[in-house]
Amino acid sequence: MSQVIEGLYYSESHEFVKVEGEYGYVGITDYAQDQLGNVVYVDMPEVGDDVTAGEDFGAVESVKAASDLISPVSGEVVEVNEALEDEPELINKDAFGSWIIKVKLSDPSELDALLSAADYGKLCQ
Amino acid sequence: MSDKKTCLYDAHVALGAKMEPFGGFIMPILYTDIAAEHRAVRGACGVFDVSHMGEVLITGPEAEKYVQYIFTNDVANAPIGKIYYGMMLHPTGGTVDDLLVYKMADDVFFLVINAANIDKDVAWMQQHITSFDAHLTNQSDDYGQLAIQGPEAEKVMQEVLHLPCEELAFYTFKTLTVDGETLIISRTGYTGEDGFEVYGSHDYIQKAWAALIASKRALPCGLGCRDTLRFEVGLPLYGDELTDDISPIMAGLGMFVKLDKADFIGKEAVAKQKAEGVTRKVVGIELEGRAIPRHGYDVEVDGQVIGAVTTGYNSISTGKSVCMALIDAAYAKLGTPVQVRIHRKLHQGVVTKKRFYDKHYKK
Question: Chain B: nearest CA to A63, how far in angstroms?
Fold first, then answer.
């Protein structure tokens, strides 16, 4: 059974957002990493790029397939998780601890459209 | 049309395999982890259900003459028990399918074809057999097939399945009667490692699979790692490196096309390609970094698309991101810098040999 953490925001395409102040840390959920299998590469945007809610900003690749990353929020990428460049498998070990991008939220009201932990948990059943 | 099940479908589901459609069948892609299954075959032993493969028996006084006419390799004067790899071609030189031909007797040949092509191949073969005194039987539904692959495969065959096989040389086979039924055992595979393929009734294959799994001497392996294994050693997959439009010459498989034998379908076209060269070639490309080039991604030079990736992975055995690609032959020289477009970004690479990892066959 994959893990769901309270207090995070979730998208139906299996990304999460962890909000700290005006920033959001975006990654993929434990359910998503379990479905993908061994992550071997994470295609990430660059610091300074803008991401838009509902649009893809990169991809997570397992041996077998690439899965697009859809941003749940809009804003500027202020940091990318460089540890994933050398150790993409960190996503399998700890999906919620291995955020992919840190975004300066341009429209925090977008969070209202995302799922709660309880609703996301139901989606994954 | 719904996907067919092999005789081991229930066994795969019981093991918790991830099942997906492949070549008209619902097949196990992986059981636990593609990389672990891949390494088991490179380092010890893995077993694959390859019952989806098609089998066609050709018999009759002109069986050999017919096989010679539809097949690029030369089976004339072949010893009984020998296996040949080659292709069936369109008159254009494009590939109908790649296959193995087992010579069972002077007038009996056993052809092993790709699952996805069974209907197409059988129709094509039927069309061409009418002018020969030979008969064709599609036995694809009668046989189950296991591939036992890896450096420990010989021991596993002997000690778990009690099938003597040590005397078999690479690309030879024998038939063996076990408990009243006839098996075909060959020293062949699609992994670049030593190994065997066993053809038998559904009942035998189910029992053999159960014995192998229970012994824990052979890890169950899915088609996911079958693809990563064959790819690393540069073996082609029909649909990727060989298609109706890609000839064996373009794919770099000219050694399996014998122009010094009697006429065969497509001979004129491939002879011309061999003599004059081809406009497109399948090459290897090694990329900087870990981004993964996938089937269909563009290969570019100076902003111009010069071809497309046929198969690509982050190679499990070497850790490098590599691919095979069909590109403009002008760029096919080893060492040529090329780029592959992956998720909008261009990644730098260089043309290499297609073999990214050395084969370890036992001769």
Answer: 7
